[in-house]
Amino acid sequence: DIFVTTKLQSHIKGYESTFQEAEKSLKKLGLDYLDLYLIHAPWPWNDMGGDHTQGNIDSWKAMIELHKQGKLRSIGVSNFEPQQIDSIVQATGFVPHVNQIPFFIGKPQMEIRSYCNKHNILVEAYSPLITGRIFKMPLVHELAKKYQVTVAQLAIRYTLEQHTLPLPKSIHEQWILENTKVDFKIDFDDVKRLEALEGGYK
Question: Model pTM?
């Protein structure tokens, strides 16, 4: 099955503009509904860290309405911190189905993952292969050899064992298929070693 996800551009904040963008995405893709629609970020990329609380609330209200209409089967956010999620939930009473965040070996994201788990929000682990940097980490190579898997498989398995949904990226069929073969378990001690790489990617 194909699961279609797309995002509301980060600079679009507002009820009507969100409605229009979602409809535009449906038209471009030739679909009657999207499986998942995300607010790309809590702020425009040219105003990172800015306060766009009301804009996010208005966009979220539009997405809730589109969800009720069956045009968006699931709705969520991306790159949101707990307080940013709280603001849209308090205003609408609707909890996001998903929060997509950068999560990989060396970036544990403990606070936001704990928050999402508490509120039953699925964490999508963006960039589990760290845009290729994972292949430069000696410990990951060492453990991949131990488990007789590839570096990518180890990195993906790590994110799965942290109760997240990994989003590895590849355009090669061989690697896409290879990335699905992750039915092994990483020992507790090895997980702790990987967690200890925080900040250094050693």
Answer: 0.91
